TrEMBL record:
CDD domains (alphabetical): Trp-synth-beta_II (cd00640)
Protein species of origin: Ferruginivarius sediminum
Cofactor: pyridoxal 5'-phosphate
Transmembrane recorded as keyword: no
Keywords, ordered alphabetically: Lyase, Pyridoxal phosphate
Single GO molecular function: diaminopropionate ammonia-lyase activity
Protein name (record): Diaminopropionate ammonia-lyase
EC number(s) from the headed UniProt entry: 4.3.1.15
Keyword field contains Lyase: yes
Origin superkingdom: Bacteria
Length: 409
């Protein structure tokens, strides 16, 4: 079965600082560690509704692309949020609240079970968390605030859809729309927090703000740890993973790097061409912001500045980076929804298909495929980072609601 994806723009760049033959080091461990992952999984696995999301084999897609194997981690089934983000923002909210309770009461040993039981509602009820979001991270923070008993105000920028705004509001958060792009909304949230005594729970780090984003990223490593368990042995040869501010790919790469060492998969980070901050940072050799409205259909990846913490891992841990245009996104979503040559149908949102787009671009370009070492023996891992998190947009693009796609599976 041919892959019916229209032509789209892409660019490829190999990271000259990639350290494929180097073990996971202290620079990286200062950001994310196996110990931190174990602690995060111990807490998150006790949350109501927790279960590892499926790792789905896609032999039809692999055959169509000329690859040995393609597997897809399906985050559309993550809690009730249908996104990997559920692991990050909510975990950081939990950690923040536990820290405040223990500090204010002079106690230790508080857990998420205590928060869920409202044991310390006298403290948590006076705390407000806030962040800027393009959708999924804000939902996770709002969900965590509702579950663990604190207040929440979320800021969204001009191009965030009304559907994503309403999805956040369903968890009881107050949502305010501000002018500008995602990076402008980050600055607005920081100012509002300073003026009101709120706590920022951001998924991106910057000078003077590191601890909470580290917790967010550590929550993401739980997903990568599930993959390690599900593979039951050697890792894949290649990983194609979405970019954004970098916290997500850094978390996945770090867990694989620490687990498999120099045998870790070759990691290719893929971004929208209108928000390719990791691509530009790789080219320049240091964190580099990109300007513009960052307007891409891949809304969860519409980020103009790489997280400084994420850069500590990506600088050497990301082997390659690609940027792709929006033109191929709808067809990729439809391809996964119908399944290629007998593959199970998958609900993939707009941001979930960036990795697949990068893989398709690479396999269409013999030079890029050759540089990446992709071919009939390759075992590729894709991560479907979200499902139909904007249900109306998903229906418009795919031609049916996500429920129908799931039922067909």
């Amino acid at each position: 079965m041919p892959i019916d994806i229209p032509d789209f723009h892409y660019r490829y760049f190999h990271n000259p600082r990639a350290a494929g033959a180097v073990a996971y080091g202290e620079r990286q461990r200062a950001v994310l560690s196996a110990e931190g992952c174990r602690a995060a999984r111990a807490e998150i696995s006790t949350w109501p509704g927790y279960a590892p999301t499926p790792l789905v084999d896609l032999p039809g897609l692999a055959k169509a692309l000329g690859l040995g194997r393609v597997r897809y981690k399906d985050e559309s089934r993550r809690f009730e949020l249908n996104s990997f983000k559920a692991l990050g923002g909510a975990y950081a909210v939990m950690r923040l609240l536990i820290g405040e309770i223990e500090r204010r009461k002079g106690i230790s040993g508080v857990t998420s079970k205590d928060l869920l039981a409202r044991t310390h509602a006298d403290v948590t009820g006076d705390i407000t968390v806030t962040c800027a979001t393009d959708g999924n991270h804000g939902r996770s923070v709002a969900w965590g605030a509702r579950n663990f008993g604190c207040n929440c105000t979320i800021f969204i920028h001009a191009t965030v859809s009304e559907g994503r705004k309403q999805a956040i509001e369903r968890y009881g958060a107050r949502v305010e729309r501000v002018a500008g792009n995602y990076d402008d909304s980050i600055k607005h949230a920081a100012r509002a927090a300073a003026e009101n005594g709120w706590f920022v729970v951001s998924d991106t780090s910057y000078e003077g703000y590191m601890d909470v984003p580290r917790d967010v990223m550590q929550g993401y490593t739980v997903m990568a740890d599930e993959i390690v368990d599900q593979l039951e042995g050697d890792g894949p040869s290649h990983l194609f993973v979405q970019g954004g501010v970098g916290g997500f790919p850094a978390a996945v790469i770090s867990q694989f790097w620490e687990t498999w060492g120099t045998d870790r998969p070759r990691a290719v980070v893929v971004e929208p061409d209108k928000a390719a901050c990791i691509f530009e940072s790789m080219r320049q050799g240091h964190p580099t912001a990109v300007a513009g409205d960052l307007d891409t259909v891949m809304a969860g990846l519409a980020c103009g500045e790489v997280s400084l913490l994420a850069w500590e891992i990506l600088d050497q841990g990301a082997d390659d980076v690609m940027e792709v245009s929006d033109a191929g996104v709808p067809a990729c979503m439809r391809l996964l929804a119908r399944g290629a040559d007998g593959d199970p149908p998958l609900v993939a949102g707009e941001s979930a298909v960036a990795g697949l787009l990068g893989l398709i671009a690479a396999m269409r370009d013999p030079d890029v495929a050759g540089q990446l070492g992709l071919g009939p023996e390759s075992d590729v891992l894709l991560i479907g980072s979200e499902g139909d998190t904007d249900p109306e947009l998903y229906r418009e693009i795919v031609g049916q609601p996500g429920h129908n796609t799931r039922t067909a599976a």
